[in-house]
Amino acid sequence: MIDTLRGLLPKKFRSEGPVIPVVRLQGAIGMATPLRPGLSLASVAQPLEKAFAMKKAPAVALIVNSPGGSPVQSRLIYQRIRDLAKEKEKEVLVFVEDVAASGGYMIALAGDEIIADPCAIIGSIGVVSAGFGFTDLIKKIGVERRVYTAGEKKVILDPFQPENADDIAYLKGLQQEIHEIFIDMVKSRRGDVLSSSDEVFSGKFWTGGSARGLGLIDGLGDLRGTLKERYGSKAEPKLISAPRGLLGRRSSVGGVSALASLSSGGQGLGGDVISSLEERSLWARYGL
User: Fold this and answer.
1) Can you tell me the distance from the alpha carbon of 85 to that of 82, in angstroms, rounded to the nearest whole number?
2) What dihedral angle (degrees, nearest 10) is formed by the CA atoms of 153, 154, 156, 162?
3) Which residues does the chain have with pLDDT short of 70?
4) Is 0.90 topped by the overall pTM?
5) How many domains does the chain have?
6) Which tens digits make up the pLDDT trace of 88-105?
7) In the chain, count of helices (H) and strands (E)?
8) Contact of 216 with 194, CB cutoff 8 Å
9) Under a CB-based contact definition with an 8 Å cutoff, are residues 217 and 210 in contact?
10) Residue 113 located in a structural domain
C-alpha cells in the first residue's frame, strides 16, 4: 500500500534511493510476563515476516541490543531469520548497539555481516545458571520444608535443600550440551574468519574493536552510515515494528491481551517486577 501511494507522488517528491527494512531486536531474551512480552520468537515473528516480504529491498537490517537470556528462544529467532533469508533470498546485515552477548550474540550470528559500535560489548559465548540457597534461612525462621514427589529427581536443585554433587554434575552436563551447540553455530557462521584462540568460547566478552580482531564481527560502524555508504546517500532505513494492541502495547503472535493479563488478580504485575530485576541484572553484568 505504501509503495502504491509513493508511486502516485510527483517524481520530485519521491525517494529515489532503496528502502531497507529495519527490525529492532532489543531486550533480555525469553523473560516474558503478561505485562512484559520479552524478546522471543512470538514477539518478533510478525516484524521479521514483514521486513523480509519487502521485495525491492536489497537487504534486511537487524539492530541487536541484548545481554542474552533463553538459549531456546535465541536459537529459534536465529533460525527464523536464516529461514526467511534463504526463502526470500535477502542479505542480512546485523548492527550491534550496546551489547550482543550470550543469546544476543547467538541471534547476531544470523547476519551475513555483523557490524558493531566500537564501544559495544560482544561475545560471552557460554552458558550460565544461577540461583540462591535458602536452607539456613528456613531453619532460622522456623520453617519446615515439605515436598512430596513421584520421581526421585523431581526436586533436583531445590533451593530449599542442601546442594547435591550429583545434581550439580547433571546440571553442568546440560550446560555443556548447550554450550557445544552454541560453539557449533559460531563455527558454522564465522569459521572462515574466527580466531583460533581458546578464549573465544570461554564466556569472555570484548569491545567491538577487540571482537573484530577475534573474527566475532565483520566491521565497526552504525546502521545509517553503513546503509548510505553501501546503497547510496538516498538509501532510506524503514523501521518495522510489531502492531500495537490494546493500551498501545506491542502485541505478539498468539499473545495475551493486556486486559486479559490484568484479570489474573495482580499476578502479572508481580511477575513483571521479578522479570525486571532479572533483566536488570543481565544488563548490569556488562556495565549497562
Assistant:
1) 5
2) -100
3) 1-15, 32-37, 129-134, 138, 244-283, 285, 287-288
4) no
5) 1
6) 999 999 999 999 999 999
7) 10, 8
8) yes
9) no
10) yes
